Task: structure prediction
Amino acid sequence: MRYSGFRILKEALTGHKGWTPQWRDPAPQASYDYIIVGGGGHGLATAYYLAKEFKQARIAVLEKGYLGGGNVGRNTTIIRSNYLLDGNEPFYEFSLKLWEGLEQDFNYNAMVSQRGIINLIHTDAARDAATRRGNAMIMNGADAELLTKEQVKVLYPFLNFDNNRFPIKGALMQRRGGTVRHDAVAWGYARGADSHGVDLIQNCEVTGMRIENGKILGVETSKGFIGAKKVGVAVAGSSSKVMAHAGMRLPMESHVLQAFVSEGLKPVIDGVMTFGAGHFYVSQSDKGGLVFGGDIDGYNSYAQRGNLPVIEDVIEGGMALMPMIGRARLLRAWGGIMDMSMDGSPIIDKTHIDGLYFNGGWCYGGFKATPASGWCFAHLLAKDEPHVTAKAYRFDRFLKGLMIDEKGQGAQPNLH
Amino acid sequence: MIINHPILGPRDAQEFVYLGDASLIHRPDGMTASIETFHDYTYLRDNPAGLHRELWYHEQGDRSWLVVTRNTVTHEITSVELARDVARAEGRSK
Result:
């Protein structure tokens, strides 16, 4: 089903009786050419690009719950490509370019809003680092701009510029960064994949993998065995659980990351702001809520909820940055499960099992990567070779010493 | 989370630093182990959903290392041991 202004007008005049479900609800077939495990942002994007761009057919997405019920519905909706390292920046810039054309591509209002993201600078050394990162971004075709304290003041006059510990001395701005309506991304990809013939099978949990002579034959599910020539796993925080069915141990720990939203306020924050030194970042949703978060809780968890000390830590960061936030009331707090890889960067790679492919380890940066992750994973599945921007995201980089330690830490800060 | 320290009694988890899977106690012999063995030890994890034995360091307390058995789905802590006792029982200490 597609939308248009004319259609809305017509339905409004005819009692809204013509709206139909956006995608089918098919029963699984006995076998497929491609099975994507995980009906979240990355899995749906993979299926969409696999069908649309790589012209593959007989594709199914298996989702243990409902579509978009995992991290694509639990994140803080930020898109950006402000990375430093060669292994990362081309990939995230590819992703940002896909974001820019996404709504036209899948004909869905995902509310892509390039409202700009700033990373605050507090010291001369941090300005040097931001300058270097900005230059790396520009060299990879992204946009970056160094702002002075006065320029930040024009944008956000209410910040605590003279904080004793972290005075604000400027910022690194990426104007093309911004926010996207996260659920609509899942829905847009789901409808797009469905319209290209992909079977989206919900309430279908993978409970095992049938592997013989080093080759995958299909997956055992709560709806019975489903055969497949190729299986791609894109299950975010549950990566270790699913890949254990293939006897694999991953360089990952699952951790809980919390996010928060305040009551609705009048417009006060135009863009996205990160206060890395204070473990705090914030933007404002179109409904008016301040959407913010901080660091992971720091212990293995599959609970999708965190604990109070981190809530306190994040709010303290917010108070240090913009004391007026103390007047806002917290509306909701929730948690999502991150598969924290050991160097903080993702994996999009084949496994040692013929026909089994893996996409995961997105840590807390998976949402912005959604389009490129789907595209690159579809490329790998269809052509058996990595996309040019995802060549570094290999399993064996830990063995070979080729870690992509963008932040200098993964699940723990002591693994480099 | 409250960690019931074997010596000091119930302590807030905020006093501790977390290291991860308690199998990290089993460090391979650096003189004989292969690169692959050390890679597996350093980077690969079981990462279970359910009971997880893990190392916590009481940095803001008595600086002891603990082995805490915790359910990663519910955050419930079911047993706490001194890592020293665990390691000795496994024959690590000379």
